[in-house]
Design a protein that fits this description.
- This protein is an alpha/beta fold.
- It has helices spanning about 5-15, 55-70, 80-95, 95-110, 110-135, 170-180, 195-210, 225-230, 245-255, 280-295, 315-325, 345-360, 395-400, 415-420, 435-445; strands spanning about 25, 30, 35-40, 45-50, 140, 150-155, 160-165, 185-190, 215-220, 240, 260-265, 270-275, 305-310, 365-370, 370-375, 380, 385-390, 405-410, 430-435, 450-455, 485-495.
- The protein is globular, with a radius of gyration of 23 Å.
- The protein is built from 15 helices and 21 strands.
- Helix 2 crosses helix 8 (about 225-230), helix 3 (about 80-95) crosses helix 7 and helix 10 packs across helix 11.
- The strands form six sheets. A seven-stranded mixed β-sheet has the order 14-17-18-13-12-19-20, sandwiched between helices. A five-stranded parallel β-sheet has the order 9-8-7-10-11, with helices on both faces.
- A hairpin with a 6-residue loop joins strand 3 (about 35-40) and strand 4 (about 45-50).
């Protein structure tokens, strides 16, 4: 047998892999009347036929989810018992690590090494951390006189629909389903049609772990059909979403048109990565800048796509950045040596290439990459690109590309850097590199972003909330703050 770290091992394993494409409704596999082809961006091969759930499918799923919630088979379990089942769910995911990692790589195009090192461990951390937290959250007793008792308690909201994106299918699902299930809700997960296969696999593992029928359902389908039906449904209590700002806005409209369901969104980003001349380690900052735009093919909501560099070090620093980005090269995602995989599909690849054309047309200088690549025949690949001589009004600097395209702007002082960094409709994340402690605090406070990283890019763990300012959305994933989205807060006042 080939070594488990070898390209050949993963190629051999892929040949024997089969995929479940049916929906999972009320504890059973369900083949919808329509289906769509699931195409691997690695080589264009159809790897599965996936159910496309329609309005009727959504209706029966919501009915099942509501019935399970009202029956109390999950919602009325003691938190410690829900915790034990969720921990078993995580153990089963870990036992299927290779299958899930390989599925994610083939379905979405990300390197197998990243699936193993990041996606699976992060999914497990989200489930286990959240499960462990649920029986440690206390309700409150209000301060009253001796003749009254005031209680503030959390209750599950009911039926939660989670619509998740294609770039981190398992992680984004775990961030949402873990606290929703832990609180006792019934959940309907709609994965992206671009990468639905691991979500479907999770459904079977959840049932095996002991999550009752109707409590966790998976409905594959398209956003404009399946997603819209969930958003408009009068008996879905809460909708949580990660994806584009445009779709987030539409979902909020649907909520208003239906039952005013709570809508929590994590939407787009155009994150600034600000490097001052006194950065403690320019080599580390350059490597981080490269990783911040190249990792996951740049298909990251927090990608450091806007690099702001202080003028006095710009020439020196950009030489380091160009060298670092050049080491990120497209390759076959099943090769463990690959650090840049395939763009998720042809539509997204064409979007990335159109922005590269726009940068050139508007006068930016392309100094690294930017060409379509073909390490695998029929695949969707692009070389990570670096644009210099960029101005803040250019499309590549203002609009979310969701691909490995870095735009670089130089600044002269702190005030100018902060103005440029905040000059965006988004506010998901930002980073600042400086050795000056006062500046680090001052600049971080001035940044209008939900996450700010100092002398690093993309820091934090499950204890830190994640979400955005402005048109990057509302609400927070991760941490104890995530439970707020899946809870009703009830005040009970008793006359003694």
């Amino acid at each position: 047998m080939a070594d488990s770290h070898s390209f050949q091992y993963w190629q051999d394993k892929a040949k024997g892999l089969t995929f479940e494409g049916r929906a999972f409704i009320n504890g059973q596999w369900y083949r919808a009347a329509e289906h769509f082809d699931c195409v691997s961006p690695i080589d264009g091969a159809v790897i599965a036929q996936v159910s496309h759930c329609n309005d009727a499918d959504v209706e029966q799923t919501v009915i099942a989810a509501r019935a399970a919630f009202e029956a109390g088979v999950w919602s009325q379990l003691a938190p410690a018992k829900r915790k034990a089942i969720l921990l078993k769910f995580a153990d089963l995911i870990e036992a299927h690590t290779e299958e899930l990692a390989l599925t994610e790589s083939l379905d979405m195009g990300k390197p197998i090494g990243d699936c193993l090192a990041v996606d699976i461990p992060a999914t497990l951390r989200a489930l286990r951390w959240t499960a462990e937290a649920v029986d440690k959250i206390y309700d409150e007793i209000a301060p009253t006189g001796p003749n009254e008792l005031g209680m503030v308690t959390r209750e599950a909201v009911g039926v939660v629909s989670a619509i998740v994106p294609w770039n981190f299918p398992m992680i984004m699902a775990a961030w949402k389903i873990a606290p929703a299930l832990a609180m006792g809700n019934s959940v309907i997960l709609k994965p992206s049609e671009k990468s639905p296969l691991t979500a479907i696999k999770l459904a079977g593992l959840a049932l095996e772990a002991g999550i009752p029928a109707g409590v966790f359902n998976v409905l594959p389908g398209f956003g404009h059909t399946t997603g819209k039906a969930l958003a408009l449904h009068m008996d879905v209590d809460t909708l949580v979403f990660t994806g584009s700002t445009a779709i987030a806005k539409q979902l909020m409209i649907y909520a208003g048109q239906s039952n005013m369901k709570r809508v929590w969104t994590e939407a787009g980003g155009k994150s600034p990565n600000v490097v001052f001349a006194d950065a403690p380690d320019l080599d580390a900052a350059a490597q981080s800048a490269a990783e911040g735009i190249c990792y996951n093919q740049g298909e990251v909501c927090t990608a450091g796509s806007r690099l702001l560099v202080e003028e006095s070090i710009a020439d020196e620093f950009m030489a380091k950045v160009r060298e670092a980005v050049a080491k990120w090269r497209p390759g076959h995602p099943l090769d463990p040596a690959t650090n840049v995989g395939a763009i998720v599909d042809e539509t997204q690849l064409n979007r990335v290439l159109s922005y590269i054309d726009s940068g050139l047309e508007q006068g930016a200088k392309l100094t690294v990459g930017g060409k379509k690549a073909e390490p695998v025949s029929g695949g969707q690949f692009v070389e990570p690109a670096v644009f210099e001589q960029v101005t803040p009004d250019m499309r590549i600097f203002k609009e979310e590309i969701f691909g490995p395209v870095l735009s670089v702007v130089r600044f002269s002082d702190e005030a100018e850097a902060l103005k440029i960094a905040n000059d965006t409709e988004y506010g998901l994340a930002a980073a600042v590199w400086t050795s000056n402690l006062s500046r680090a605090h001052r600049f971080a406070r001035g940044l209008r972003a939900g996450s700010v990283w100092v002398n690093q890019y993309d820091g934090g763990d499950m204890t830190a909330p994640f979400g955005g300012y402005k048109q990057s959305g509302n609400g927070r994933d991760k941490s104890l703050h995530a439970f707020d989205k899946y809870s009703e807060i009830k005040a009970t006042w008793i006359k003694l």
